[in-house]
Specification:
Oligomer: single chain
Order of helices and strands: HEHHEEH
Shape: globular
Structural class: mainly alpha
Strand content: 5-15%
Distance between the termini: 25 Å
Largest sheet: 3 strands, antiparallel
């Protein structure tokens, strides 16, 4: 696997784990960009939006655009991936402590 693919998988896992812990299990695009920055993934809003599209296509989040801001909401399937109960190729598994 190439380095860029590993980064994409890690970003997707970070997004799912954040949403799993977030109140209401949702987060806006600007918040998710900040979350990824904090996790060491300095990336553009466009790149994060592409990851959210991928997560939606794989039924891990739903996307809504209230007031023009993209909001991702974790699905049950996405929560199971974040909790390491379900494996989806393309999402890095959480680090187990």
């Amino acid at each position: 696997m190439d380095f860029n693919a590993m980064l994409r998988e890690d970003r997707r896992g970070c997004i799912l784990r954040f949403l799993e812990d977030a109140p209401g299990r949702f987060g806006s695009l600007p918040v998710l960009v900040m979350v990824l920055d904090t996790a060491g993934h300095r990336t553009s809003s466009e790149s994060v939006a592409e990851e959210l599209d991928w997560l939606e296509r794989n039924r891990l989040v739903t996307l809504d655009i209230p007031g023009g801001v993209v909001v991702a909401t974790l699905t049950q399937r996405g929560a199971e991936v974040a909790q390491d109960r379900l494996r989806v190729t393309g999402v890095k598994r959480p680090e187990l402590v």
